[in-house]
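Researcher: Next entry in the queue.
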Amino acid sequence: MATLRPPKSRPLRLAARAVILHNDRLLLVNAYPDNKGDLWCAPGGGVEKHSSLADNLIREVYEECGLTISVGAPCLINEFHDEDSDFHQVDLFFRCSITGGTLAETWRDPENIVSKRRFFTRTEMEQLSYRPLSLPDVAWGDGVHYDALEPLLKF
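Model: Structure for this entry, 155 residues:
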């Protein structure tokens, strides 16, 4: 008689993200190739094993935006998941500062994931679709925040 095994589930995904305020504007990226979606988020991405969170974040921000950064203190832990699948991601957000480079329209993400990058005022963010929803309060606030199990948006 065959033994029933539970279906394999995808491992928890860990990502590092940068909260970069520059001239009172927050840096956001649109991570949809070919402008297929209008959701904005903080730059960053999946953590590679055997590399620190800070080193991963420095790499991701450079790839997505062409900027070099210094990584400061953590400011947000955000979990999001897809209730209809086994996808679950934890994003660790860090306060960061730009140490070199400028945003350029000609910059291309080598993985072709980020299609747009831009600084937004808090007022401009009121007109955007972005995640996590706590991002403005975190960016223009202080302390460390925690968002538990925000549903994944599907396009």
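Model: The longest helix spans residues 53-65.
Researcher: Noted, moving on.
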